[in-house]
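Slide 14.
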Amino acid sequence: MHITQKQMAQDLGVNPGTISRYESDEREFPIEQLKVVKELYRIPDEMFLAILLERPLKTVRSGNGLRTLDSTSDYANRSADSVVEEQYMRDIMAIAERMAPENRALFFTGLQSFIQLYKNQLDN
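Slide 15: predicted structure.
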């Protein structure tokens, strides 16, 4: 996101060392802060999900099939399909927010596996 730990700490009102501990997995990032970060930095839903799943965002689905994502500016002219897709992402995040941390990890691992299966089908 091209933002320093210090800047993110200021934006979230926490100590810069806390951000460092989040990044090094010494401390779990509070689930309630995910929505704040997403909105604060205007992260598109597809990109946000890719970040949570720790997967590179190489393609996005558009009305014309799959295409390479070159930059976040590609999100400026969104189609009706992308608005529906964003609602699906919000629904997924709402489900995850209500889960206990250990169940949330299993949920995202399952989603990650499903995404990989889907990608394999697309490649065939």
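Speaker note: The CA atoms of residues 48 and 55 lie 10 Å apart.
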